[in-house]
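Let's practice the habit of predicting before peeking. Look at the sequence and jot down your guess about where helices and strands might fall. Then scroll down.
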Amino acid sequence: MAKRHYATGFRLMVLLGVVANLALAIPAVFVPNTVIALVGGAPVAETVWPAFAGWLLILLSLFYLPAALDPDRFRMVAVLTVLARFAGVVFFTLLYPQFLLLALFDLFFGVTQGALLLALGRR
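Done guessing? Here is the structure:
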């Protein structure tokens, strides 16, 4: 019975993370400098690259959906979903520390999803 609760929690956290990603990424595609300013950066002259990063975040979020639907069946996707969050933490902490807010965003989802996935156990 507990396993089902952990699976439900993991699904919900992944879906919440997808929604949070989309809330950040969709505006980034259309108004990148506004989003950059909201997360602590300075406006850029050429906006194609931050807009493209938003587009890639949308696509990455879609790849999280199988893990949200069935973390047991799509175990590798579930593991990669958690690892991708920690990759974001490393990226923003080490390479772009001025975007600490983005690192904390990924850290929150990485820790909660990772803990739930570990509690869910191995197949």
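How did you do? The chain has one domain: 2-64+74-120.
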